């Protein structure tokens, strides 16, 4: 853990019911999720977090080398939620590639708590338009690895 990521963890506060914008990056910014099948495995792990009622995903986009996840924490704490998601996603991706023990994600994650008055639909639109801004597609609907409960 670097000194910078340690400082981020010390200042992190999480509360069930709050909405957070999470960003997490692959190890060495490797474009692992340019592989369609691996991307779908990771998205299934996001959905599993919701199915276990730990979170409610409001929007996400899985880019080739990182994830943006707009999520409402339902129970537990944010670090545990993200840590379990990343561990489970790494396990299924590594199993599919016969690469057990390979590091998939960089350590830590960036989080931003959203205030109640913030326009969540606008934040969701910002999240899912990442592939357009990155020049991967011309319009959001052309990119396969995103979802939002409303736009």
Secondary structure topology:
Elements: H1 3-11, E1 19-25, H2 36-51, E2 55-62, E3 66-73, H3 78-96, E4 110-114, H4 120-128, H5 130-133, E5 146-148
Antiparallel strand pairs: 1-3, 1-4, 2-3, 2-5
Helix pairs in contact: 2-3
Number of helices: 5
As laid out across the biggest beta sheet, the strand order is 4-1-3-2-5
CATH architecture: 2-Layer Sandwich
Largest sheet: 5 strands, antiparallel
Query: Terminal Cα separation, in Å?
Result: 37 Å
Using the alpha-carbon principal axes, give the shape: globular
- Structural class given helices, strands, pairing? alpha+beta
Instruction: Summarize the helix and strand pattern as letters.
Output: HEHEEHEHHE
Tell me the name of the CATH homologous superfamily: Transposase IS200-like
Mean pLDDT over the residues: 91
Q: Kindly state the number of beta strands.
A: 5
What is the CATH class designation? Answer: Alpha Beta
Structure report:
- The chain has 151 residues and is α+β, with helices and mostly antiparallel strands.
- Helices cover 38% and strands 21% of the residues.
- It is built from five helices and five strands, in the order αβαββαβααβ.
- Strands 4-1-3-2-5 form a five-stranded antiparallel β-sheet, sandwiched between helices.
- β2 and β3 form a beta hairpin.
- The N and C termini lie far apart (37 Å).
- The N terminus is likely disordered.
